Amino acid sequence: MVDTAPGPGASRTERTGAATGVLAALFSVIVWGAMFRVSAGMLDAIDPFHLTLIRYGTAAVPFAALLVWREGWSALRFEGRFARLVLLGGAGFAGFNFLVYLGLQSSRPQNAAIMMAIFPLLTSVVVWFRFRHRPSRATTVAGLAAVAGALLVITRGDLSSLVDILGRGDVLILAGVLCWVVYTMGPADLPDLSPLRYTTLAVLAGLLPVAAGTAAATWAGLATTPGGGELRAHWAQLLYMVLLAAVLATRSWSSASRTLGPQNTALFMNLVPVVAFTVEIALGYRPGPLEIGGGLLVLSALLIHNLHGRRQPNPQVTMEQGHPPRRNPSPRSRP
After folding, report:
1. Which residues, in sequence order, are CB contacts of 158 under 8 Å at separation 6+?
2. 3, 42, 323, 35: which is closest to 185 by C-alpha?
3. How many degrees, rounded to 5, is the angle at CA 204 between CA 94 and CA 207?
4. Residue 186 buriedness (CB in 10 A; 0-12 / 13-18 / 19+)
5. Cα pseudo-dihedral 87, 88, 94, 99, rounded to 10
6. pLDDT in tens, 279-312
7. In whole angstroms, what is the distance from residue 24 CA to residue 22 CA?
8. Fewest beta carbons within 10 Å, which of 66, 142, 195, 267?
């Protein structure tokens, strides 16, 4: 991870961009954190394969319409990137959703939250080995502190319960989280694409492995096409998962990854279990002091990480974020 805030020598534009990136990342993790409660019970009626196909098959329409409105019809062209975007979209949408939802069928929601807390460290390792960009000591400590806080929230302060909590299905969830790391790294490989264009093309290309996986699962008897009654019964949950979780949150996440860098953006994923925990409190759950302390530890780690960045010299943004140097974007691929 690197610093989320520009240094004291940063221009007003850079500071505004960093603030926008932080807000975009926060919006995404808040939506995704609340999704645990929103989707409760829906997997009993709609299997993971068809749920993913419905979410992103529907989301592809507003994504494409918004891209055409913002950047023109030519922005829908893959321009030789189709195979790469099939891999990135397949990892982010088919891989992540299939594996996490399948893992949850033999695991528990708090296990998925644990794996999401590991996400920033996985991203740092990938960036370290891929770009030879080693995270600073301060940001590494902030990341470890955030993971520790998330674990306190998930285990309700009883860390010894991790032995009992972790079980079958967790390997699938961890593999799914790693798939999302791959997707989050995508903007670093395609710097000439705006966040909106990257997300839209990844969704469109990713529908190929999503549809293929769903068809294969249905043929093998692992999935069943939901009927109209099942869809109507869960229309509000589906609306949330398509419009907010699939369209707006995914778009915001790609924007944050482009602005802050994949490592910085990944750190915000530690807030997912904290948001889920907050939703439960709002619905009547009464947390213990260690759980509250864990949530505050996550927030403190993010705040200290940001403040540390403000004391550093203004970095060369693209290389400091673990990106290869950006090429000049095309006129129609503006952020």
Report:
1. none
2. 323
3. 35
4. buried
5. 100
6. 877 878 777 787 778 778 877 877 776 666 555 5
7. 5
8. 66
Two structure tokens written together for 151: 């674990």
DSSP label at residue 107:
S
Decide if 190 contacts 81 (C-beta within 8 A).
yes
According to DSSP H, which parts of the chain are helical?
12-38, 48-71, 82-89, 96-105, 109-131, 137-155, 162-165, 170-184, 186-189, 195-219, 228-233, 235-239, 249-260, 262-267, 271-282, 289-310, 317-320
**Pair 119, 174: CB distance under 8 Å:** no
Distant-in-sequence, close-in-space partners of 288: CB < 8 Å, separation ≥ 6: 156, 157
What sign results for the dihedral spanned by CA atoms 150, 152, 156, 161? positive
Residue 329 clears pLDDT 70, i.e. is over it: no
pLDDT tens, residue by residue, 69-89: 999 999 999 999 999 999 999
Spatial separation of the C-alpha atoms in residues 16 and 317, rounded to whole Å: 14
Q: How many CB atoms lie within 10 A of CB 146?
A: 29
What is the b/e burial string over 245-284, where b = at least 16 CB atoms within 10 angstroms of the residue's CB?
Answer: bbbbbbbbbbbbbbbbbbbbbbbbbbbbbbbbbbbeeeee
**273 or 330: which carries more pLDDT confidence?**
273
Residue 128: how many other CB atoms lie within 10 Å = 14
- The CA distance from 27 to 62, in Å, is 19
Both tokens of 5, joined, read 């805030």
